[in-house]
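Recall that a protein's primary structure is simply its ordered list of amino acids. Everything else, from secondary elements to tertiary packing, is in principle encoded there. The following example makes that idea concrete.
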Amino acid sequence: MTIVLKKMNSIDESVENNLTQWEIGPYHSSLPAPIKLSLLMDGEVVSHCSLETGFLHRGLEKVFELHSWRSSIAYVDHLDPEAAVFGELALCLGVEEIAGLAVPSRAQHIRIILAELTRVSSHLIYMVRMARVVGSETIIHYLLRDRERILDLFELLAGARFSLNFLRFGGVCADVTEGFIERVLEVCEVIRIRLKEYNDLFTFNHGFLKRTAFVAPLTSSLIRECGVTGPNARASGFSFDVRKDSPYTGYDQVDFDVPLGRGEGGSLGDVHDRFLIRLREISQSMEILKQLSETVPSGEYINSEVEKGYAIPSGEAYVRVESSRGLLGCHVVSDGSSQPARIQFRTPTVAHLMVIPKLVTGIRIEDLPVLLASLDLGIAEADR
């Protein structure tokens, strides 16, 4: 959709303030997803912004109530198609808490391996979007090449590249395929080497610094006001990671660091910091994958009680996982029937959308695509 310019209703007001109304979206090349922005422009500077979403709404949470517990795992893949495993993991943890299902150690290792591979894949596609908005076409091919390696691993394990439908209540649906662990270690080494290329082409690139440094810093007060989590919050020095603060599915047995923004290229929490945090998280995910791949225990990959048949008792649970975009919460309610009574999600993108009107105000229009790409919006999980 093209940009529509509208003069202010009051002629005196428009002449005095030189303000124009810009409507951008819901489908526009400068937007990372289907959203609509109504901007009040003072020349080339945004003086006011309002946001409209809902163009992808599918009623996903209602769909869960119409299908069986097992089918819900397949449907939750559509919560965030780019990082489907996190939705599966949150749902499984919630059901397992209600049912009191123990997860074998081998299955926990497999779950974390899948989660960290998904995190790396999601961060790589985030960097692709950043490259596109700053006009760096060369690195896009580097990034997509390495992301394909991860998608190949998913296909080797689950037979699918995006919607894996691989986790199950009490474990995973199958054991790892032959050669999978070795391939994971190979991919870790390759991407570890690639990180230097990403730094050379991005982090230390003068043109990229000029486009991202000092642009739209996210303050700690705004983080608390809107409930921002994940890399966007950590880029501003806000130290919170569910994997560290409330470990789940075996993360307490893994040694890794949580990178925080330091304002190296510009100001603390700006676009450049948000990019750097994801680059460093890829490095930490490589370390987690290396540790787990070398210590995968033997044993069952799913709780034996599940294979015999079981029923989800009445109850409710709320669990949190650290997705690639931030804190993903899942509230599960069971009434003892074969279908969920209620499944609700707290998705990180909703908070990121809330900060857009405040971050956009005061920036120049040419910085708008860079700002939006830096927030890593997953509109599918917001318009669920």
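The domain at 60-382 is CATH 1.10.645.10 (Cytochrome-c3 Hydrogenase; chain B). Confidence is low (pLDDT under 50) at residues 1-15.
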